[in-house]
Each structure stands twice: as structure tokens, then as C-alpha cells.
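Researcher: Please translate sequence to C-alpha cells.
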Amino acid sequence: MFARNTLKGERGQRAKGRSRQALKECSQPLTTPQDQHQNIDCETVRYANANAPHSLLSTPTPTPYSPLPVPYSHSPPVTQRALLLINPYARRGEQTRLQVIEWLKAFDMEFIDVPIADPAKISDLIQTYRDRVDRVIIGGGDGTMNAAIAGLLATQLPLGVIPLGTANNLARTLKLPQSLEMACRAIVQGKTQLIDLGCVNGKYFLNVAGMGISADINQQVEDNVKRRWGVFAYAMTALRVISRYRRFTAEIRCNDQSVWVKTFQITVCNGRYYGSGLTVAADAAIDDERLDLCSLEVQHWWQAIALIPTLMRGEYATGQRIRVLQGQEIEIYTTKPRLIDTDGEVSSRTPAYFRVIPKAISVFVPD
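Model: Translation complete:
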């Protein structure tokens, strides 16, 4: 294992400077969250306690800031009327939309079917229809679900997931059915479950964030190739990226400890699954109020091939050059800025300040 417990020389000064800057960015207040809900700083969001699970309040951070106002409280809509948002750019998007409509009709669910011209505007659509529905049904992949987070937080409407993405790791973590019929049935007849959110540098993620190989792959994989080839698109891009990738140096701070590593990939999960069938930890859950970190510290990328069965199970043995950490807050500093992807989309750079937000969103799961 590669570890150093102290900062030395100029590297230490640079890391400290980046630390102050990262913490400062994560604690900036939002002056008008009602008008700019898509930019709500996730460091200001938490649930007060079990007796008030739907109140968003401010939470202490290393620097002071203004508290976030309590979100808008919508009037009760007609019972079981959903806002239906299907990403047309997802695989089989339009075909799936028509099938979902038929299944919702079969289950006697009222719904408002709204076309999505731009998936980035999903949160705006949720805000627009907040008084006319009692739930939001979204069809798409993990990135599409991520685009809805700000709207779901602002309205507190529960989310119904129709998994149409490439990996669908959020759906796998929630043990949601892959068939359209059963997914619709879970939304209509199932129960709701409160799940945690992850946050890095002010960016939310439902399932996973990463830096290293994953961020480079997500940056380089082409959308049209991804829609056509699915998981094979990631495999093809991964072969191209990994063959020339080199380890990077990072300092990880977690639970009042600091460790230096040389790694190919650092993954931080709010959920259980990531990549294409990998498990961050055997006991990880999306409502366990913690983040799970996995760092791949082999010397050569091809050594990771033999570790694939281990990575799929999430059970690691000493000497495998896989580092696993858990915590509610994690800081990561790198000698050079590294891209960070959240739920499959590149969204930030190191230095990184990760935080878990317990029981932030309600989702429908099978009863």
C-alpha cells in the first residue's frame, strides 16, 4: 500500500490551499433557491430528524453561510397522478415511452405525459407541474435521474424509476425490476423508500462519483455510440483509455486520517453498484448514511483483470491492492487536477470534498 501521513514541502502547501478553496466552494450559500433550484448547494441540505423527514435545513460546514429556506410545500394533487418524463435520447426512448403509457393506463394511473426537449431541463419541468401531480416517473439512465435531483429536492415529490440506461446502477441498487410492466407496477402499487444523496464540490449524485479511469471513459465515450452499443460502448472506450493510462497520486482524508496513494481509479459510492456489475462493498446500501470509497492501487492496469471477480463481489482480501474506506465526509487532493464524474457525467475536478446527505429523496420500490 502507498501511504504517507504528513504533508511535506511545496506539495503540502498546495494541498492546504486547495483544501481551503474546496471547503469554501462547498459552503457557498444560494441567495434565491426558489428561482435557482438547479444550483442548490448540496452542502446546505439535510434532514432535521426522523420526526421531520421532509424539512430541508442548513447544516454546519467548516465556513459559515446563510441557511437554506424551507422548500416550497405543494398542495395535495389528485390522488395518483404522475408526471411522466421519458428521455427520448435513452436507448429505445420513444418506443419505451409508448409502452410505459400503455402499462400506466392498464394500472389505472392518471399521468401527464410531457415531452423532454432537453434532459438538462428535467428539474424545471418538475417544478412547473409540482401542484398537479403526486409523483414523478422518469425513464432514462443514471444521468437522467441525476438531472432530476434538484427538482425532486425542491418539491419533495417521490420518484418512480423506469430504467432505460446502459448500466442502470441506481435501479440495481434499489433492486428495481428491469421489465417495463414490473417497473410500472412498482410505481403504482409499491412502497416508497427514503434514500441518501451524495455530494461532491456542490454536485449531487444518486449512486456514484469517481476519478481516474472512469472519468476519462465517461468523457470520451460518444453518446450515439453509447445508445447503439450500450455497455459495449464503454468496453471499447475503456480499452482505448486504459492501455495508455498511468497511475496518479492522491491524498485521501477520511475519519480524521490521511493517506497518500498511487492509484488508477478512486470510486466513491452512495449506492452499492458501479461500472458494469461492480460492487463497492458487500454491505453497502443507498440508505446507510455513509459513503464507500474504493481505490484501485495495482502497479499495472492489466493486474486489475484478475481482480474482476473480487470487484464484482465487493469482498476484498489483504494484499490485493484495493483500498476500501467508509465515512460521511471524504476529501481527496491530487498533485494535478483530475476530472470527477457523477452518475456517469463529468461534472467537476479535484480537489474534491464529498459528503453524504441522509434520507434526502423518496423513491418507489417493489412492495
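Researcher: Any highlights?
Model: The longest helix spans residues 9-26.
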